[in-house]
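REQUEST ID: PR-0412
SUBMITTED BY: lab tech R.K.
PRIORITY: routine
TASK: structure prediction, single protein chain
INPUT:
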Amino acid sequence: MAAKSHAADVVDRLWRTYAPYQRGRNTFGDLASMLAILVLARFVESEGDPEDEFVKRWGRAVAEAGIGLSPLIDLRAAMTNASRHARFPVPDLRDLNVGWLAGDEESDDIPWAAAFLVALGQRPTLAEAGLPEVGELLLERHVQEGTVSVGEFYTPRAVVRLLVELASPQPGDRILDPACGSGGLLAAAAQRIAGSGRVDGASFEAYATDRSNPRLAMMNLAIHGVDRPVVRASDPVSLFQGRNSGLFDRVISNPPFNQRVEDIDAVGWPFGQPSASNANFAWLQLAWTRLSEDGLATMIMPPRAAWSDGREAEIRKRMITSGALLGIIALPPNLFPHTSIPVHIWMLARDKSRHLPSDEADAVLFIDASRLGTQVPRQPRVLTTEDKNRIDGRLHAWLRSPRATPDETGFSCSVTHEEILENDGSLDPRLYVDVEQEWSTSTQDMDLLLGELVRHDGAMSDSNADLLRNFSRCERLTRSGIEPPRVSLVSIVSGTGEGAVEDSGPGLLVAGPSGSLIRAEDYVDAGGVPVVMPKDLTGNGFSVANIRYITERQAESLERFRLRRGDVVLARRGELGRCAVVRQEQQGWLCGTGCFVLRPPARLNADYLAAYLRSPEARKWLEAHSTGSMTMKTISLNVLGELPIVLPDLGVQQVIADAMTRLDEHERLLREQLALVQKIRRDALTGFFPS
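STATUS: complete
OUTPUT:
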């Protein structure tokens, strides 16, 4: 605890020294430079002798910094001499493209170096704080307060530790991270394996899809006890094609979500070719193919990978029937900085029979940890040690015997391959983990359940008939062979363009209020006016589970953003195409930051527009024209206005909208019926033989 406290003090001191130098300059390589200085400082302290040239040059650099002179020449010389030492942990420093090491044109663009060295020499020292802890906290501080991103998605320390504990790497294991980002996962694996010692870099293989990250990752690994680490830039297709480095005992990774990959068809994927526009299942299949016979993989994936349809659903089914999947763990939202998106952990095995009893190898473990963690206002959620132990303990108990490990209501459930395939290969933990209280198991209650099932059958029959009628109407109205026009959204809203109706009146398309209009302190407890954010938009409506509120008085000053019945609210960031139509229940709510509100003109049916915005065609267009990171895509108001909308006449729009609404209702009935059948099956024996 004392070391952790010292590390926090050291990082706070270093960051406050560095922060003023961020303004007005390119800070892209600063973090890698900081870590390089920390590696050198620790090496001088632990391995250097007074007569060593690198110790002398380091001492001179520190002295120059103390009197306000630039230490870069001596700092560079100290690093060059230290890197020739047999025990220096980072190979080929000059190949890392750290400007001040190479002496390039930008080598003087680190004006913070002198102040950084002075701060580094103060108490508590780096030795008292511990280099690995200082490195982790400095990286975390950079993510929270730095002016540029570290590249690939940063994985919070608590999630890193959970992934490594689930994978349980052992001394002697070979470990791969095919998308290592800043190297945090492999660094944690090294610490687990080595304890207080160091680890041979040959035990690790690491790649980064962002070409700016290898140098940062190598420094991070060196800080965490990996000798002579090597990190290269690559992508899943290239890695799949070039498997010259053999197999691995563990694959641990948090690859970029929904990444576009070129030449996806050049690879013979074991479970099916993934989409070129979404590499999630390329990463999963790559991880599985690189596992040894006893190998395990823990991979972070977006929730959508667990339930998406089409090609990805077929790949999931093949993974299940092949025994590649051990389990899915749903983590809570808000764990990652700058995004509320939750994630899943996928656990893969090359051969499940080596990890489960042979007669229980058709089981898959689902853990719903979405309600775990603690959160303070305006800070990411954090998984506690107790949370991690609960998840890890349940997994390892289940691995010993799935049948002997009882399901835990609201937390975990063991499911057979057959049951998953009955759910069309969906791996959404919410489908399997029971969150309700146990129903009464008396015979009378069982009769009630069976009666409810009969009523559901009647409702499903009526719904089937409605669907047939609606889709028959759609087919008759759209089979004329005349293709409806494609009109930009802004033309439709403004009442111009092809198909405009005279005197129909324009619609409205505006972005939600900026952060300066609704500040964090303006939000109040339940009872005010709901403010709709992207997270509150579901597949076909609004969720109030985590919705936030402002006072009625505050809402009056934002009248232009008030929602009316028939409006369409559309997410401007995150999962593009996510939208919902305002009904009577949402009348008077407020469109929040991160959303657009669209008030359709008379020639556009709101439910048709919402169905079109959710379509693959519209989502693909929005993603292609979005900006931002792979994990937080953003669309601007002007670009949204250019979205081409297939615009049939209002009669056809209404029929299509009715068909989509019937599909939503049919899906709801199906889910209810499935939940009811599963409940009856679980309670059948106790219902037949009540105590």
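NOTES: The mean pLDDT is 85.
REVIEWED BY: pending
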